[in-house]
Fold this sequence. Notes:
The protein is α+β, with helices and mostly antiparallel strands. The protein has helices spanning 4-21, 56-59, 63-75, 77-98, 151-217, 223-257, 288-291, 293-313, 359-425, 431-465; strands at residues 103-113, 133-146, 319-330, 342-351. It has one domain: Outer membrane efflux proteins (OEP) (Up-down Bundle), CATH 1.20.1600.
Amino acid sequence: MRPLGSAWRCLATVLVVVGVLAGCTVGPNYKRPEVIVPADWRNSPERGDSLGDLGWWELFKDPALYELIATAVVANRDLQVAVARVLESRAQLGVARAAQFPQVNAGASYQYTRPFSANSPVLNGSPRGPFTGDDFQTSVDLTFELDLWGRLRRATEAARAELLASEENRRAVLMTLVSDVARTYFDLLELDRELEIARRTLQTRQESLQLQRRRFEQGLSTQLDVDRADAEAAVAAATVPDLERRIVQNENGLSVLLGRNPGPIARGTPLDRQRLSPEVPAGLPSALLERRPDLRQAEQTLVAANARIGVAKAEYFPKITLTGVLGVESVALSDLFTGGSRFWSIGPAMSVPLFTAGRTRNTVKGFEARQQQAAIRYLQTTQQAFREVEDALVFHRKVREVRTERERRVAANRRALSLVTLRYERGLSSQLEVLDIQRELFSAELELASATRDQLTAVVQLYRALGGGWQGQPAPSIDGIK
């Protein structure tokens, strides 16, 4: 057996070599791809803080909407799945990091050996003949892979990036959830407004139909006039149940977003009394790269793919593992822990890849291709993000102009209806003219409700495009929402 001092000197030599090579890490270091960032937004000349920097409770002041979003943030199933994926990624990071540390295992064994005859060959290397009897053994084993080429460090780097990507995915799901709840809520308010208009119009047309029937009975109008009034009343009557159906379906969809079974949804501020922001600052385009969670997720996915190349390249080099055993062995259980029963061993083991039939080379090429795909997806996601912001900005700017013109149209139709009704009562206008103006007013009021909804959802769309809605600050209590 090698003297103890000599064994420790050999071990010390190995550790010195490890220390020299420990700083060597194969594979490319991550560098963010060059992104061409616009100097400013084409449709937003205003400067200042970005709308995306606000918490959702600062943007949506409707108490009922606040309550719905707060419920969804806690109970939404998609968000719960995203949280579970974060926990899974965190566990995977722990697994990857554990490989960088020594692995220690304890074991124990018992064997009873007896030869078939006295002429059996020598067992256990004993020169005295075959061994017969008990053999008790217990030991502590240590295994430590020396990470000379950074394979384990690159694997940990990749796992850490995947954890960050899963966290950004959770934030992206939260951002989408907040915007979807707000958008669906505003759709409900629009349908409520349209239903109110349809019921009012139906009542007016039913009154007009009764009037035409009385005039027909008095010989003051024709059957054609009655049929026209009846047809217009039927149009309004058919609109009411269709809107009621759409309201229930939207309530069911919003209920699922809230993580509960389909059911009614509480309303707050009516559509025409919702606060409409005249201007919405977008901030600088360069800030979008750090604010949007989907961009951050795409970048962390690229970081992980880049690190996996280093893991694959490390397979070209030798693996050195330090192993050690400390244990006791005895033929009698009572003597297992006496001085003469102890044994130990320690030393390195090395494996060198000599021939892999191209497996390592193709593995490296495969991870390099994945890294290229991740880089392209990152650039594509960035361009899509810039587009979404520009689309949202022009939508918000132009929908205000549309709403202004539709308000003007409603006001003009109301004045025209008042005038043509007066003329009809005096015999100066026909019933057909009255029906035409009533039809125009009904359509104009519905389109105005749609434009009002669009102006609200334009803010939601821009808020989502700017990466808002996922900030980690705690939301205030419902009493703080005015």
